[in-house]
Amino acid sequence: MNFHVLSVIPEVFDEYFNMSVLGKARKRKVVSIKTYNLRNWAADKHRKVDDSPYGGGPGMVMKVEPIYKAVQFLTKKLKIKNQKRNTRIILFSTRGKLFTSKEAKRLSKYKNLILICGRYEGVDERVAKYIADEEISVGNFILSGGEIPAMIIIDAVSRFIPGVLGKNESLEEIKGSFPTYTRPEVFYPDSKNNKKSARGRSALGRKLAVPKILLSGDHKKIEEWRKKI
Questions:
Q1: How does strand 112-116 pair with strand 186-187?
Q2: Rounded to 5°, angle at Cα 199 from 198 and 205
Q3: What's the rounded mean pLDDT across residues 44-70?
Q4: CA end-to-end span of the chain, whole Å?
Q5: Strand-pair category, 186-187 with 32-37
Q6: Distance CA 186, CA 201 (A)
Q7: What's the confidence (pLDDT) of residue 170?
Q8: Max CA-CA distance within the chain?
Q9: 94, 136 in Cβ contact below 8 A?
Q10: Residue closest to 61 by CA, chosen among 137, 114, 128, 12
Q11: Mapped to the 3 state alphabet, what secondary structure does the chain carry?
Q12: Following CA atoms 187, 192, 198, 204 in sequence, which dihedral angle do they give, to the nearest 10 degrees?
């Protein structure tokens, strides 16, 4: 699986993509994550990728030309074959389709994902109409750019790629979501550190213990308990 991220600040991805599960998956070459600076495809010496909006209004709009040239580079120079079948070009937008686990699973079937990260006041509408295959929104809120959504997409999609997680059963979509506990079996909150919040104060003087069913060793009953929670 190949992820190609187009951004004006590609350096923000380096540390996150080199850590933990994704970092290990990259080292094993299960996934490939490459970032590209959109300014490399700017037409002027100042590497400008934005301009004022037609019709007036606040802010700046990302230009269509650098994005078009960058996508053309990825599809031609990297020799991406059968583009429509193997590749999906995604633009992050508040008007896009809401990203869900179901969408992540769908996108994991492609060989290449090209992720366009917007910035400033927005992206020239011609990118959405003629370059991107689809627009995706990661939630009903506004972010400063598409970099965080790109991280979310890559993380969520990667989990469906065989070999990224240690076991397929690790997928919460398969095992379900339920409360989890680990050592110590009994925890006594430190009163000095729990007076600042109402939730912290509610734990004062209490013995916070792991549910007995989880200590029983009866896996059938534990499974039933987890399904009821």
A1: unpaired
A2: 95
A3: 94
A4: 36
A5: unpaired
A6: 18
A7: 53
A8: 69
A9: no
A10: 128
A11: CEEEEEECCHHHHHHHHCCHHHHHHHHCCCCEEEEEEHHHHCCCCCCCCEECCCCCCCCCEECHHHHHHHHHHHHHCCCCCCHHHHEEEEEEEEEEEECCHHHHHHHCCCCEEEEECCCCCEECHHHHHHCCCEEEECCCCCCCCCHHHHHHHHHHHHCCCCCCCCCHHHCHHHHCCCCCCCCCCEECCCHHHCCCCHHHHHCCCCCEECCHHHHCCCHHHHHHHHHHC
A12: 40
Bridging pattern class, strands 61-62 and 87-98: unpaired
Residue type, 204: L
Cβ-contact 167, 180 below 8 angstroms = no
Say how many C-beta atoms besides its own lie within 10 A of residue 22's C-beta: 21
* Mean pLDDT of the 207-211 span: 91
Q: What is the pLDDT of residues 83-104, one digit of tens each?
A: 667 999 999 999 999 999 999 9
Cα-flanking dihedrals φ and ψ of residue 24, to 5°? -65, -40
* One-letter amino acid for residue 78 of the chain: L
Fold of 2-170: Alpha/beta knot (3.40.1280)
